[in-house]
Amino acid sequence: MRDILIIARKEINTALRSVSYYTIFFIFLLISGFFFSNTIFKFGLADMRVSFGILHVLFLFYIPAITMNSIAGETSTGTFELLATMPIRLSSIIWGKFVAALAMLKSVILCTLVYVVIVAILGRGLDAGAVVTGYLGLILAGCAYIAIGIFASSLPSNQILAFIIAVLISGFFFGIRYLIGMLPMGVMQIFQYLSFDYHLQNAFKGVIDLRDILFFGVISLVFMLLAEFILRTRNLMQER
Question: Are 170 and 194 in contact (CB under 8 A)?
């Protein structure tokens, strides 16, 4: 655990010294704020469920943007190979990057709490329980997207390509809901269960289902293990 925190602290400090991180951070808040204000003032919908849906869509681009450099960037510069030679387990390196990305995600989510205040003031009634479970659902989904982003970053040594791969994989899990209606009944339930949006709907309504927590946990673990497998395989091939 200590090694994971060391790596996470290193990643966060690197991000805080990067102009690109602040750019991505403010673009996320700018776009989410634009859609939130439109929802409130143009359409008159003072409802956090709409805002949660907007934030979920933005995750498809924000999270790949903050994870694309996690491995691909260090691989291209050769610093990852140097890091891998240190007396730190490869799994600790990968999970340290996961913890750092999760901290970055939580920081931007924290800034969106102002939406809750505005909805509480302008809305007819705010369901505090639904707000808590909605944010919890977003964080769980965010963990899965982070794991996907780290996996995508482990494949190429090009950051832009890592971003594109992460967006495509994340887009698959997000976009399944639009394909369900065109699938046969026997396959529909399987694909529906793979839909991130399907599992988030309960949280947005104020319900936390253990099955949804397990789903996002399994997705996160699978992609993190895949990332570790890719890197171990690459190290073995380099040693030959």
Answer: no
